[in-house]
Amino acid sequence: MNNKPFRGMTKIIFFIPILTLACGLQAPIKPTNPITTPVNISVPPIVMPLITLPEAITNEEAVLIDLYNRVNPSVVSIIVYTNQGNSVDSSGQGSGFIYDENSHIITNAHVVQGADEVEVVFGDNSIRRGKIIGKDVHSDLAIVEVEDMPSGLLPLPLGDIEKVAVGQTVVAIGNPFGLGGTLTRGIVSALGRNIPALSSFSIPQSIQTDAPINPGNSGGPLLNLKGEVIGVNAQIETGGESRVNSGIGFAIPVSIISRVIPDLIQKGTHAWGWLGVVGGSLNPNIIEGMDLPVDKGAYVLEIVEGGPADQAGLKGYTGQIRINSRIVEIGGDVIIGIDGQPVTSFEDILIYIALKANPGQEVTLTIIRNGEKRELKAIIGERPNDSSKFFFNP
Question: Taking the model in full, what pTM does it have?
């Protein structure tokens, strides 16, 4: 595999080194010191007419109050313990929520990573031992199972990613800094973000929100106003200056949750599809340099040797030219369709392979090569365990 840096295009390597995982240790609570100043002021009494005020609550407040009362009992705190030599001590804390009636709880894989023991604290302060039965580093999701779950608790329903829209109101419920049962409100700030997983691949379709989430919120639900889970809160953008929220948080989308969690419960793992290409979306320099008949698509820069794309006959770049003082790698295939679905960006390939293709499945790739359209058949592989050199590509 050619590891030369991209020069003529935007390489799809979604490093976000300043993202912070939204989980952490419980911090001690500092007391608030109220400041009061005695004032001696003599004023005549004011007699006001007796009036009856209407209930001072808005429709949105009523919705939030009802949502919290319904959802909060199903949100839990996850306490992680690790072996410190002579004892097993608390080493971290995150959030989670009830997934089904079989005592399965969703949280982040990074919350329980390296745990020797796990405890689950419910809203009524009852504590149960938890068992990690499934974990996936590619999606940063995990399942914890408890025995004898407190009665009366209901699973949280999952929403539909296709109905999530930028600008809609969302709430996060979790345990920031160990403060259990905290609700914060915001909006969906953006959709379709790619955020780093615990492996070298990315998590596509992630949701960006300005609802405040902080260390301890990891694994908790991001909800719409119906109380449906649309994401699992996982990361925050801190600007590299601190560990607290700066108005940009990220949640693993419900589309990934729906695909991964059933496998984690049944098998403990999830097998991800893999094509084995490195590339990015078309840009004007590549279009000009290759005199392409299309202006949208996924450009294949490199092929992982021996991978599914290599076996299918896909080609990476073959040479370089200079355009507007920039070196542009040209000659690679341009993918414009997969299984009859249009591909207008490299993101489309990421999403299709992650959400609609399974290892062993045959897909049809529609490509442009040497200015002509053709089709190739590829057998989707399974993501390799050692993926450090593939960097967030399908």
Answer: 0.81
